[in-house]
Amino acid sequence: MPKYLLLFLLTAALSLLFTPVVRLLARRFGVLDHPEERKIHGKPIPRLGGFSIFIAFNAVLLASHQIDFFYFPLSFIKDFKYGWFFVASLIVLGLGAVDDFRRISPKFKLLFQIIAGLIVALTCYKIEVIASPFGTIRFGIWAIPVTVLWVVAITNAINLLDGLDGLAAGTSLIVCIAMFAISLLNENIGIALTSIILAGSILGFLKYNFSPASIFLGDSGAYYLGFMLSALSLLSNMKGTTALAILVPIIALGLPIMDTLLSMLRRLLQSLHISRDDKEKNMVKFLFSKGKSMVKPDKDHIHHRLLKLGFSQRNAVLTLYVVTFILGAIALSAVYFRNIDQALLITAIALASYIGVRKLGYSEIQFLRDGTLVPLFESSVVSQRLFRVFADVSFIALSYYLALLFRFEGDFSPAVREHYLSTIPLILFVKMVVFYLAGLYKGSWGYMNVDDVLRMLRSVLLGCVVAGLILWFIPSLGVISRTALFIDFNLLFFFVIATRTSSRVQEYLSLLRNRQGKSVLIYGLGRAGSHALNEFLSNRRLNLKPVGFIDDDESKKGEEINGYPVLGTLENLEGVLGSQVISEVIVSRDDIPEEKLDRLSQICSSHQIFLRRLKTSLVEVPTPRP
């Protein structure tokens, strides 16, 4: 362990020494990051900080390889083909440096990143197998493209993350330490030494890069760190179990990966619009609007969102450091506890990620709540019977496949695959006939009730039972697992009911969204009060948010009408207005005595609250305005 600590401190000292020199040269050559709308800093900051990391890392790595005390096993430099690796990293560093001096096109940068990825895939290491809880994928001839994709993706992910002082560098430092620990557990000493040297070079630079930064990584440093992490993250687990070979680096690099995927999805949804429904051609036309691109920079990354939520720049960076540390600890645990339930681990991370993204408030990915897919639900194409038939065929095939996959715990062996292919035509035919005879294609998806749900349940249950019995009585096919049939029923029922109630769910969520606007108190219960409540919730243009009711019937106090409380009577109105933030009081009934209306008008005027009466439309009661 002393040699690791010594290398770490030595590299950190060299990086600490080189960074001011690089900063001075960047200023002299005018390589500065100037403030603009997307940037956080308020004055020009030197770039090219990646060069100090590059110099310190390679100097210590090459020097320590010549010293027996540090012991790079099996002639690490030769076996790892470090010469090619060095060339690839130099290409990426040079590419970023050119971009720091003078901006170059994304296509040009992508081309050279692919070249660097090809060098790694052809000379050092390539991803040939991905094993997961749901099955094993062997890439064969696709191993090289997959490896190149990984290298290019992580290289750009670190660059996208480089938006706050010290964020990309600090995150990379934590990932390097995680890879160092993982390499030690896998007895991969060469990669462990390399990772700790890279960590030291980052630490020395971070002294000048943490808020308030006096030098930035620049594209040269961000691309270089991304490239190094993409390769070392795979190599650090190369001697580990096959099932974890790709899972561990994905977890360790979870933050930049999540930020990149979120950015791509968000930008895609911003550019994608359903322009119009062509009823004559029975088509829904999509439009990619100008000015939107998946590669166009914006100011809405995860770190930007934290700033919008009120975090200071330093606190936002520290928060993301903690997230990276937790993910690194999980990746390390996955290697240390080799019998860990991978499916449970992935589920837990996915759930935590969903909660985190939801807290950040990205409106673009709220498909239903914010109406991204509303035009699709309302289009005539969705209402066509052919569309429903196609959807059901897809869901029948998918649910049966997933049922077998879950039943055999991801081991989709040749025997299981052959059984699926031989039985799926019969299952599709039987279930679709049952669905048709049960009346599943009558009516509209836009109007659903309890009877429709019961019809769906009967259709799916009958279809699964009939298909299972037919398979049972045909010896050449047979039932491979009764448990799989039960899983198939549950999945298919979920898919069927989800698709047919999607428009109603969207309608309900839009009602929830419309609970924004002026807070209003409804005077009067009964049918008129319920009508008023429904009108306020469903009519977006009114911009009204119901708070509750008041009514003359004292016994109704404390009850709820469609989830909204009855707060009291007219006599209690003074207290209600004192405890609630109310903008308007709306009278829903026509039979309220004039003396009560006069009393209501006086109370509203004294509290500077508008009073209106609901008829066919909202008409203001002719009372003095406050």
The number of helical elements comes to 24
Number of strands: 13
Main pleated sheet: 5 strands, mixed
Mean pLDDT: 77
Helix content: 55-70%
Beta-strand portion reads 5-15%
Gross morphology: flat
Radius of gyration: 32 Å
Helix/strand class: alpha/beta
How many angstroms does the end-to-end distance come to? 77 Å
* Number of separate domains: 3
Poorly predicted regions are: 240-244, 373-378, 616-621
* Strand line-up of the largest beta sheet: 8-7-11-12-13
Can you put this structure into words, describing what you see?
The chain contains 24 helices and 13 strands. It is an alpha/beta fold and 626 residues long. It folds into 3 domains: 299 residues, no CATH class; 135 residues, no CATH class; 107 residues, Rossmann fold. The strands form 5 sheets. Strands 8-7-11-12-13 form a 5-stranded mixed β-sheet. Strands 1-2 form a two-stranded antiparallel ribbon. A two-stranded antiparallel ribbon has the order 3-4. A hairpin with a 2-residue loop joins strand 3 and strand 4. Helix 5 packs across helix 6, helix 6 packs across helix 9 and helix 7 runs antiparallel to helix 8.
